[in-house]
UniProtKB/TrEMBL annotation:
Domain of life: Bacteria
The organism's taxonomic lineage, starting at the top: Bacteria, Pseudomonadati, Bacteroidota, Cytophagia, Cytophagales
TonB-dependent receptor-like beta-barrel domain residues: 289-751
Family the entry assigns: Belongs to the TonB-dependent receptor family.
Protein name as annotated: TonB-dependent receptor
Keywords: Cell outer membrane, Ion transport, Iron, Iron transport, Membrane, Receptor, Signal, TonB box, Transmembrane, Transmembrane beta strand, Transport
Location(s) in or outside the cell: Cell outer membrane
Family annotation (SUPFAM superfamilies): Carboxypeptidase regulatory domain-like (SSF49464), Porins (SSF56935)
Amino acid sequence: MKKLVFMLSVMLMSIGAMAQNRLSGTVTDAETGETLPGANIILEGTGRGSTTDMIGRYQVNRIPAGDYDVRVSYVGYQTTRSSISISADLELDFSLDKSLLSTEEFIVTATRAGQTTPTTFKTISKEELNKNNLGQDIPFLLNYTPSVVSHSDAGAGVGYTGLRIRGSDQTRINVTVNGIPLNDAESHGVFWVNMPDFASSVENIQIQRGVGTSTNGAATFGASLNIQTDTKREESYAEIDNGFGSFNTRRHTVKAGTGLLNNRWAVDARLSQITSDGYIDRAFSDLRSYYLSGGYYGDNHVFKMNVFAGAEQTYQAWNGVPENLLQTNRTFNSYTYENETDNYQQQHYQFIYAGNLDSNWKANAALHYTKGAGYYEQFRPNDRLLRNYGIQPIVIGGETIERTDIIRRRWLDNDFYGATFSLNYISGDGRLDAILGGGANRYDGDHFGEIIWMRVAGDTDIRDRYYDNNAVKDDRNIFLKATYEVVDQLYLFGDLQYRGIDYRFVGINNDLRDISGFQNYHFFNPKFGFSYEAAKGKTFYASYAVANREPVRRDFTDSPLTEIPRPENLQNIEAGVRTQHNNFQYGANLYYMKYNDQLVLTGQLNDVGAYIRENVADSYRAGIELDGAVMLSPKWTLGGNIAFSRNKIAEFTEFVDDYAAEVFQQESFTYTDTDIAFSPNVVGSAMIDFRPIKGLEISLLSKYVDSQYLDNTQNENRKLDAFFTNDLRFIYKISPRFVKEMEFTLLVNNIFNELYEPNGYTFSYFLPGEAAGGRELVTENFYYPMAGTNFLAGVSLRF
């Protein structure tokens, strides 16, 4: 009996030792008591941890009895540690104090909006980005944020993609990475295809709609995207992500990091490959990228080096699908030459410093260099005169050949480098927060074309250049912005920026014109506003901001230098309220964006037949944007946003080619009070998240985009139809013994097989006909269709 009792006692003790306990609680701001969603709770040395949910709650399960050190961290707050002993389920709350300096956060502070900044913005966390990150580009990961419309040439979100915010395209959206400009200095565009899987190395993205605050690089004329790359992790980690989907889409990503070594050093790395056949015929993508970051993290100073690069080959789908084929052949691609591809690679180097100079002063500085080189190859059939390539007619056996098949490559080989800085002063009483910042950058780009093959060769050699020119652009800016608390909770904001540009061209353009010349600009961009922090997490704000923008490369190269279009001017008013309180958050804002001399395509031709953009004197965008989310229960969360807008040009003159006339000419038509192209009056999204059991989340994601016109004539025959799409997402997380976490994701896009096109273009011309005047108007519309029902699936292993 004694032996039996002893054995039972030992078994009970063993069972007790093996018991799995739960640690749970809430993380809040020590000063305000507001909960902190997204805070990290780690049991050091165990690999176990959790992240707080929307109402600041966390839960760590299956913890063996014992003593542990718990670390709690949140961006912008001081990390706290506690020693605890667990022998049963334990409820433990944490309160965090705001950090005087979160050094990595300060890297992007100068170009970001803060809680008291009187402008309209939204910050998307890494967790939100990762939910949809299965290989599609960043524009599609941001598709459900307010006023965003995403599009894809290949129709599947991989390859050439883009987005519009409030109707403004990518060339009018300023993008920075750690405060460093990303937009192409000449076209002002951002080519996400050059940065495949970059979202896997992003900590968060802040979208400022409207002019926003002063930033570096291209002028903000619709919105800005401020991207912060991965910040350091305290613990070492490794992650493997593999995915597959429709159209033979594949994604393979490996990530690893050392965590803090000797409490000072950290290294993070990522390697990615994404391939896809695309929805459109032959529109394949073969994309590769890497990201490497190493840093020294002192008590008051951080030094960080980031190196990231991307290489892409994509088959061209730039021509779109003709309107008459949309119903019968939505995947049509007019290109058939096997190597009609775009080939480009780009390497980015960033050296960043951030630090505390003393209790009142912080500093940030960065050096950067980007190297880009690549070409697109085209087969040109027997449809262009040899003299268009600077080649004399070829005489063979008495026959003069003026046309022949040609394969050409058009090259870009460019360097972009410079420096950015910011100096932040916070007064002892905390009422004044001022930042002096700016940057100086140079772009040096070679543009040239090569002939690599001719069916009938004349006096030419392989890779002969038929055009060659160089552009150098210097862009410098300096800004001073400050927020001052005049009375409790009432803040005044001011932001003054000077931006200067010198732009020089030398050489022959692809139409064989000499484009040599020089332009310079000096812009002053002031911004003013106020915000008021009321009770229960409400912030009311209003602001007035001015932005000026120089013409893009094509405006210089396609127009005679004596007739360069005027710079554009934007005056922006924003006013609204935003609230974040426990289990709900919402925002509402009104905006008015008044453009002077906005540049648009009118159909007007230059002296060699290229279409040019012209200034329209008076145009505007005005609207209201609403967004919010509420956690109804631990199982249900509802969210959504909707924007209603009016986007008008006071007077617009269209030029139409007339091939019916005896001598080619253009006829003009003037319109008043017309809609701005690609500007839907309504854009909305809705998200429903359901968590039926632990680890499983099911989400329905819906998107509505109103009809859009393809040009500024508001012609009903030249438009994109409204569309309403629905995606279904499943995420299931488990924590088996052999890995820290295992995550399965399934994203079913367009579950109701909606046939829609978010992008396209149009042109019209007169041909001889039987209509009045002996001619008829022909309009050709081309569209970029998106795929019907398709899926992406992924498996992530985290160690």
